[in-house]
Amino acid sequence: MNAGDYIEVIGxxxxxxxxxxxxAAADYSVVxxxxxxxxxxxxxxxxxxxxxxxxxSVPDSTPTTVDYDIVDYDxxxxxxxxxxxxLTIPVDGKYDIFFGPALWDASAVGVRSLIISxxxxxSVALSIIPAAIAGNLTAHECCARGISCISxxxxxxxxxxxxGAPLDLLTDGGLGDIPVFYAKKVN
Length: 187
Prior knowledge:
Low-confidence stretches: 12-32
Helix content: under 10%
Largest sheet: 7 strands, antiparallel
């Protein structure tokens, strides 16, 4: 973690009202729970975090580059709407790059993959997980720490899934702005 970062515990429940006068644990069943790193920013650092306003439909067995339209913060012009898939490094140094959490529609079939690439080719981080059991959302994240960069290098995220049908990469699910794409100079 870096200065200003924090961890948020998250959970999503389904109401199953028991008819009691008070809210009880029996009134809810957990459908998703976890924790996520929330990258922070301050005026002295080089960092940016972007996200999406709408879910992204990802075709079956088709690598799909994620684009963004919300700037959560950007201290050094990493992001431009003219290149909505990229975070571009403004100054030489080492950077942490993060994407997630990726929250996929429920499907018990196939795998889900996240790939962070540098300069349109070299993969710097990869996360592949199997689908969650039927009826549950699948969630994961991907991060690369301390990647050496020069000004003008850029990063993108490609998502991939093999479920036999299109699946949405969800943007909220009651959890706030997710997924986020984040870069921060660490050295």
